[in-house]
Every structure is written in C-alpha cells, then in structure tokens.
C-alpha cells in the first residue's frame, strides 16, 4: 500500500486566507466570530457567525468570469488555487497529469437552491435562472472548481454532515493508497447562509447570549450552551509519496491513518454515541500503527455543543485513559465557529501548522470544567509544543464520526 | 489476493415496480413509467410529464422507522434496502452491526424539505419551519435513515454527485469491502421527485413533452423521475460460505472529470472514455469483451450524441457490435438513483442473459448509429456489463459487472 | 421604453452575466462568435431579459437569439404582445 503525503494546503477562513495566517490568529486567541453581515439575523436567537468578511474570490482567481459561481464554489475555487500554488502544481502540470478533487460539504448549494426555487415561486418557473440551476446540485462547487483549475482526475463530493471535510481527506487518502490516484485536492467547504443558519437556530443548536460575558462558543467549558456557525474552505494536496518525491515536492506531513465510526441510534443512545467516537479514534490510530500514548496532540471537534463536546470527552477518556491528562488539545471551532463541511479540513490545516511551528492554540474563555473532564491540559492559553503527530477528530451532530492521524515524515 | 466482491441482493423502488422481480419483468416487457406529473401543479410549465412512483407506501417495507417521519428519498432508500436484504436472504440481526455499512448517492437529498422552507418563506410564514428542517433536509440523513432502519453501525457514506451518484456509492462500497473494512455493504442511490429539479430542467429546455426517446433522431429531451436502487454487496467468500445467491461480480470502476462545463459534456468524450477505460482496466477486461452497455442515455440531443462519441472513442469498431440500451426510456431520469437502478439492471442482465430495450426508438439518428436494442428486450449472453453515468459538473463514473461462477 | 433604452439594459445584463465591459459590446455582436459565450450563458441572458422586461419568449424562439440585436428585437416584439400570467 502506498503512503500518502501532504504537499500543500489552501484555506479561506474568517481568520485568514493562508494556513500560517489562520494559525497565527488562532494562537493569538483571536475570534472570527462576530455579528453576521451577510444576511439579516433579526428574529433569530443567535446573531453571531464566523463569516469570511470581505471575501473576494477575484483576489485569488484573477480576472476569470466568476459570475457562474456561487459563494460556496468561490470559496472552494479560491482555497484550491492556494493549495495548488502551495504544492507547486502549475497549470502546465495539471494539463499533463490528472489531478482530482474530493470535496466534503454538508450543504454546498442550499442558498442557491432556495434562491432558484423562490424566484420560480414568485415570478413563475419561466423566469428561473438557468445559471443558478447548474449550481443547485450539491457537487456544483467541486465541478466549478474542476473547470477553473483543469482538475480532470477523480471528482467526488461527500456529504456526511459535519464530518464531510475530514471524511473527504480519508476517502482521498484511500484512493491514493489503493493506487487509483496520485494527486488529489481533498478537504471541505460550507458557506454561511440564511437557510442553514435559520435551520440550526430553530433546532436550538446555536448558542444564545444569556448573560454570559466574553465570546461564544466555548468548547468543553461547563457553561457552554451551543455552537455558532462559521464558513470557509480548506483543501490539502494529497499525493502518493513516491510521485511527490519524484517531482521534488516539499512534504508537510503524512496522512498516517484514518478511521470512522457511526452511531446508528443518531444520538439517542448515549453509550452508542460515545462508542462511535471511540471507535473512530481507535481505528485511525490502529491504521496509523500508533498506540494511544503515542498520540502527541489532539484536534478536537468540540464546538460548544453541550452533548457533543461531552461525548467526545467521554470517548477520549475511554480511549486514552489516564494519558488524556497529558495530551495537548486544541479546539479551533471556539474561534472559527462550526464550519460544517470545512471544519475537519480546517482542523487538519491548523494541526499541520502546529506540528510545523511548535505552538498549539488555546481555547479562549475555557475556564470551568466538568468533574470528569479528561483533558487536563485544555485551557485558554496557547502552549509551546514539540509534536510530530496529531489526531484530528470530526464528530457530527447526529451519528457520523471521523478521525485522521497526521504525522511528520522522516525525510 | 484481493477479495472478490459480488452482488447478492437487489432492491428497487421505481415507477414500473417495487421489488426486483416485478421491476425486471416490467422492464423487459418495455413497460413505461412516464405519465402526467401529480406531485405538484405543472400548469405554469410548458411540460407536464414525469416518471413518478405512484401509490408508494413505505410503511409496508419498514419495520423500525415510522415512514411518516422520513423524507421521501429516505423512504425509498430504506424500503429498497429492506427489499435488497430480503432478496439476499439475510436478516439484519444476523450481521455484526459494526461490519455492515451503507453507501448511497443522491442528487437532491430531500427536496420537499427545502421546498417547504421556500413556500413558507415566500408566504412570509417562515416560523412554520422548525427544527425538522436541519433534522430532515441535509442529504446525509438518507444513508443515516437506512442505517437506523437496519441497525447498521459500520461505514456510512453519502455521495451527492448528481446523476452519477449511484455509481460513486457502489464504487466506494466495493473499495470498502475489498479493504476488509466491512463484511456487507448496502450500496445504491435514491432521489425523490423534485419541483426544483423539474423547474431547472424545464428551464434549460431539456424536458421532453411526452416520451423519452434516447438515441432517436427526433428525441426531445429527458423526463425527470424518482426512485431508489440498492444492492447488497459482499465478498464472494462470505456469499459462498452462507450459500447466498450471486447475481454478478463487481469487477471494477472508473471515475473522472471533464473539467469542461457544468451542464454540457466534453465534446470529444474525453472524460467519459477515461472513466470507461479505468473501469475496464481494473476489471482486466478488454473493450471487445463487453457484452452490454447500460447507457446514461437521458434522451437529450446532446447527451446521446456525445455519449455515442465517447463509446466509439473507447470501443472503436467493437462499438458497433456491443448492444447499448437506455432504461431511462422507460424509467425517466431517476437522478441519483439512476446509475444504482441501472447497476441492478446490469446484474440482472448478467444473471439472465437478457438485455432490456431502449423503447420509443423509431427513427435512427445518423449520429447515433450503434445497436441500442430498439424497442424489444433481447436474449444475449452477457458476461461483462458496463454501467455508465454522467453528471452535472462533468462527473463521469463507469462500473463493470461480470459473470461469476460460484 | 425606447429601443436604445432596451439595448442599454440588455448590454448591462450581458456585462453582468458574462463579466464583460458593457461599453465594448457591439450592437450586432453575436453571442457565440464575437462574445465567445457558451449556450448556458446565452440562455441565462435570454431569461434575464425576460425577467427584467417581464416578457415571455416562447421556447422555440430562444434558439433564434444569436446577437444582441436579436435580443433587443425580441424583447420589443413580446413587450407589445399580451403577457401570459405566471402562476
């Protein structure tokens, strides 16, 4: 089986549009969460979101006609440009060899779908926009990005809720290991839009300001009362190790192992829910040939959800036992919000930067802990670390879990 | 030595029958599931036909879940999953839940949920939309519901890769089984009739007024439809050990992207030919060994012409000798379910050595000059069948199924 | 609306949809050959014109719209025709 390496990364987030900028902001404890400006939140419980303010895709994509692309497609195409540049995959190289794209997204185009449908309802089906229609398919962002960047390899879209982006990385890694592809952009994206925001708000999943001070959400904190939504796109360039070496690419790290778990009780049975997360982590470590005590840091999926964060903490306690007390942990959704399909990929990007730079972001405002909380090193301050691997978790609201181990390569 | 993966059960929900036997009989008889659209008022549209699944009652097939709580695409998928397992002679309780998984594809997810959202929004009654929107709309709920219905806690994946989704889902299940990550996978696709999809295709001028006539000179477009197809996939070793019936072996697949245009295929069939070639290479089959191609064959002027070009590009002279048919002539375009239903068709063709027809083929088109099995099903030795699917965004997916001696 | 006003509005629409400079769009520019637009973009321009001017162009006529002039002409033609009420 072939080994899978990461040769570049691209990101568009509320805290920066390069991996280094994002990581620096996270380490400073800055928050990308603020009052939403993209749409009107009057009447909604939560007015906050992790919006990519002033996003202008033209900045990354040059003079091309971007009118046919909606916001999600633009986020993906922009992150793709950055990842391709970072990994040295020029347009000429892409013309000669097939680079593919695996994108995880929870909604992709729900905003475009709704706009399209509403115009047809209000003005009649004859006035529905043909261009919008081509973006109503959930694989639209992946398709648009492939057209813009001449990505003619495998083009897959995966939709498994919050875990979509990390799942896409696992799927892409498997394709490369199995010899089906040699270079794949993999990651995820979701845009902040009224439709999904409304849905989450109505479902009571978003935090409300109820007299607490400071920023929300606070993963793992005993006072947590929900997450906030964010948006963005993050893509890794994954390659077959041999062909990366052959072309003299710079290797950031290896995708050492992947695992997933599934709670078919869909969060109704707490035992099963915890087991699914534990299974996901165990499988990823087993795949990476790591013992629990060999995992050097954890990128938690925790996003401020009262039940979700607890589930992940319980699973960590089960899998790592007492070792959890000495494991550094980051929970970047504290500062980015829950970016859904993008989240796992953003976490991967932040983990890579942590391994590279030796600084692990803190979890701002994390001060009060539940009694049995296993991760004793979790806290609001950044830490200096010297870590050569990271376990990245993605835990969904309703059953899906995915875990990936990233590891520095001995080159 | 890699695991060989076989199809041991088939479950379908279609406009011409629910359940494998009824469906296959009707398909071979050239029955058509296209009629006037009933699920919404098409008065303001210039077209009025669709291939809806009429009179479907999911509660007849579900044991655990309450059909009333499920979106329509989930109902189809869960029902087809139950049918597939029953067809395979398996009780879900006999399986290790961690080793049983679900991999499905879709185009629209649960469109009625977003349509309800939009109706409320336009009527300024948005507060009618509650927590159920997030709990029902996102497309991952479809594979989640199937897992919930059956108690499967293994791999659970959803591929919303539009009209090629079924093939993507089956391809992934194939990989999962070969890697030993599961003992059994339910793989397929599901889509519910969608006002949004209908509006879009009608606006593109792609919807035919009455009939779907793939490859016919006077073809006027596709007919949107709905349904689900689910296959039970297992390692051959396990199927043999339990005396399961084997329809066909999944021999290989290929995925590619045109990277050309969102709604129009590459004019020279480049991406499509690459996907077919990859599938054949993996199956260790040469083009000349392919006995049947289940075409994407939507019935639009462009698709059928470009698909013909792609087939010729890969198969060369043999293109004229391999029968190619489009069951969309009978089922309409069931979107994400299409290639899953068509994979089931290939498995059945391999089992029975019979090929379904392309109906409504009355006048040949000089640009589409292959053997499309016009109007009548045919007896034909099918050793290797290829299932092709093409989607918006330029996604191409080809699957190869092969006879398997048990 | 005068023909000139219609033409200006049509050019605005093309500029916005196709990311072109309205001032550089010739009156008789052909969508495919001169402006290098694909069929989806051309259709989008036609539907946008229908929407903007509240006209209904029969589907059969859409394929006859090949130049900017065609669009202007057809909008004028159907503006004076009775509009079929949308549902």
Task: Give an overview in words.
- The complex is a heterotrimer of chains A (411), B (406) and C (87).
- With 411 residues, chain A is α/β, with parallel strands linked by helices.
- Chain A has 2 domains: 4-253, Thiolase/Chalcone synthase (Peroxisomal Thiolase, Chain A, domain 1, 3-Layer(aba) Sandwich), CATH 3.40.47; 256-407, Thiolase/Chalcone synthase (Peroxisomal Thiolase, Chain A, domain 1, 3-Layer(aba) Sandwich).
- Helix content of chain A is 36%, strand content 18%.
- Chain A is built from 14 helices and 15 strands.
- In chain A, the strands form 3 sheets. Chain A has a 10-stranded mixed β-sheet with strand order 5-4-6-8-1-9-15-14-10-11, sandwiched between helices. A 3-stranded mixed β-sheet of chain A has the order 2-3-7.
- In chain A, helix 1 packs across helix 14 and helix 11 packs across helix 12 (306-320).
- Chain A starts with a strand and ends with a strand.
- The longest helix of chain B has 16 residues, at 72-87.
- The relative contact order of chain B is 0.18.
- With 406 residues, chain B is α/β, with parallel strands linked by helices.
- Chain B has 2 domains: 5-241, Peroxisomal Thiolase, Chain A, domain 1, CATH 3.40.47.10; 251-402, Peroxisomal Thiolase, Chain A, domain 1 (3-Layer(aba) Sandwich).
- Chain C has 87 residues and is mainly alpha-helical.
- Chain C is 54% helix and 0% strand.
- Chain C has helices spanning 3-18, 39-53, 59-62, 68-79.
- In chain C, helix 1 packs across helix 2 (39-53) and helix 1 packs across helix 4.
- The radius of gyration of chain C is 12 Å and the shape is globular.
- Chain C starts with a helix and ends in an 8-residue tail after the last helix.
- The chains are: A alpha/beta (411), B alpha/beta (406), C mainly alpha (87).
- The interface between A and B is large, with 76 and 71 residues.
Relative helix content of chain A: 25-40%
Kindly state the number of beta strands of chain B: 15
Largest sheet of chain A: 10 strands, mixed
CATH architecture of the largest domain in chain B: 3-Layer(aba) Sandwich
Q: Gyration radius of chain B, to the nearest Å?
A: 20 Å
The most extensive interface, with participating residues per chain, is: A-B, 76 and 71 residues
CATH architectural label of the largest domain in chain A: 3-Layer(aba) Sandwich
Rounded to the nearest angstrom, the radius of gyration of chain A is 20 Å
Oligomer: heterotrimer
Taking the alpha carbons of the first and last residues of chain B, their distance comes to 17 Å
CATH topology assignment of the largest domain in chain A: Peroxisomal Thiolase, Chain A, domain 1
Rough outline of chain A = globular
Unreliable stretches of chain B:
none
Q: N- to C-terminal separation of chain A?
A: 19 Å
**Do you know the CATH topology of the largest domain in chain B?**
Peroxisomal Thiolase, Chain A, domain 1
Q: Looking at the structure, what is the overall shape of chain B? A: globular
Percent of residues in helices of chain B: 25-40%
| Topology pattern of chain A, helix = H, strand = E | EHEEHHHEHHHEHEHEEHEHEHEHHEEEE
